[in-house]
Design a protein that fits this description.
Number of domains: 2
Structural class: mainly alpha
CATH topology of the largest domain: Citrate Synthase, domain 1
Largest sheet: 3 strands, antiparallel
Bound molecules: acetyl coenzyme *A
CATH architecture of the largest domain: Orthogonal Bundle
Strand order of the largest sheet: 1-2-3
Shape: globular
Radius of gyration: 22 Å
Helix content: 55-70%
Length: 376
């Protein structure tokens, strides 16, 4: 079988029972449960448990899982020292990628790849990731690090370690919904990267490091920062029409629109849109929301027929801005959540591994003579 599919589009390269996407009708399920239901009723901790175990936890199971995760909130001393030496100009995504890799230095047996060990390593990374991001952000602002509070949820603790004060219930819940909705999404590029790396039986740290590197690209998770830059570039809602039409005329992409799988509105965008609207009103950012919904209206009119609709990044930008996050923390937030999904895929891959090794179609010449350097 030698079928060539550029970008592996349409190729089924793995089996999963974590998330399922109906791109035509805009449906996303985690382990069979609709994302809207999870966004309404679940928590990030419960969602991660669901993805890793393929069933909702009992109260006791959730307590045990949460306890283990909280035991890993504390960032390793070596990583804390390392953060002090990172230049304040470094991008948080580069910092997160590099320090997830360095967490392996503080693991007694970083290469253990049995499923149970992989699960523990995943908890170790997921637990420390918020602290890494928060501590680096504070360090670059010249502020002292805040130690974690293990009485807080994953989302509350991150906002606490970042800002030095406990978030309001509304902010913490909004942030948790962002974490739930970004946690998993089929065999997307970064998830594929994680599965490709672990399929060599490398190690969980390497697999998740690769995934963070993939996610930061502007065609993937980096698009949420692109959305915010675009919203900042548009002075007011009255300028949206000209801005979008000019971009389309120049064949530029509007960030936060289009998706390889969805040809309808991304269901996560629907959940986040409601959140963005509410938070924008609560925080006096109505103009930002109005600009976003105007862009959506024009895009639907102009390119809706091509199946180009808002994706998860479009309204998450306004949501993160209203929560008070700086622009270059948007993609790290995505990564923090997706660590849940990536880890689940790593565990799945290890449970039934086969090395990924596709082929390239050779399109070069054959029989080319070697020419000595002085004769070229
Ligand atoms: N703005 C304007 N036009 C678009 C956009 C967009 N964002 N996305 C696609 N199109 C147009 C293309 O120009 C093309 O038009 P044409 O047929 O007239 O040439 C048509 O829609 C199909 O585009 P493709 O490139 O084939 O779509 P593909 O499935 O390869 O691209 C992608 C998906 C990469 C996400 C693309 O839509 C894009 O670049 N979007 C902007 C970046 C973005 O928001 N990325 C986040 C994706 S979600 C995530 O990773 C979490």
């Amino acid at each position: 079988m030698t079928t060539f599919a550029k970008g592996l589009e349409g190729i089924i390269a793995a089996e999963t029972n974590m998330s399922w996407i109906d791109g035509t009708n805009g449906v996303l399920e985690y382990v069979g449960i609709n994302i809207d239901e999870l966004a309404r009723n679940s928590t990030f901790e419960e969602t991660v448990y669901l993805l890793w175990n393929k069933k909702l936890p009992t109260r006791a199971q959730l307590e045990e899982f949460t306890k283990e995760l909280r035991e890993h909130y504390k960032v390793a001393d070596g990583i804390k020292d390392r953060i002090k030496s990172i230049p304040s100009t470094a991008e948080p995504m580069h910092v997160l990628r590099s320090l997830i890799s360095e967490l392996a230095f503080y693991d007694d047996n970083p290469n253990a790849n049995d499923v149970e060990s992989a699960r523990h390593k995943a908890i170790n990374i997921l637990g420390q990731a918020p602290g890494i991001v928060a501590m680096y952000d504070r360090a670059r602002r010249g502020l002292d690090p805040i130690e974690p509070d293990t009485s807080l949820t994953f989302s509350e603790n991150f906002l606490y370690m970042l800002n030095g004060e406990k978030p309001t219930e509304t902010m913490a819940r909004a942030f948790d919904i962002c974490m739930i909705t970004h946690a998993d999404h089929g065999l997307n590029n970064s998830t594929f990267a994680a599965r490709v790396v672990i399929s060599t039986l490398s190690d969980v740290y390497s697999a998740l490091t690769a995934a963070v590197g993939s996610l930061r690209g502007p065609l993937h998770g980096g698009a949420n920062e692109g959305v915010m830059k675009m919203l900042n570039e548009i002075p007011s809602v009255d300028d949206v029409e000209d801005y979008v039409m000019n971009k389309l005329k120049n064949k530029d992409r509007i960030m936060g629109f289009g998706h390889r799988v969805y040809k309808a509105k991304d269901p996560r965008a629907k959940d986040l849109q409601k959140l963005a609207k509410q938070l924008a009103t609560d925080t006096g950012n109505e103009a930002l929301y109005e600009k976003s919904s105007k862009i959506e209206e024009i895009m639907e009119r102009e390119v809706g027929s091509k199946g180009i609709y808002p994706n998860v990044d479009f309204y998450s930008a306004t949501t993160y801005h209203c929560i008070g996050l700086k622009l270059d923390l948007f993609t790290p937030m995505f990564a923090m959540s997706r660590l849940g999904g990536w880890s689940g895929h790593v565990i799945e891959q290890l449970g039934d591994n086969r090395l990924f090794r596709p082929k390239a179609q050779f399109i070069g010449e054959h029989g080319v003579p070697y020419v000595a350097i002085d004769d070229r």
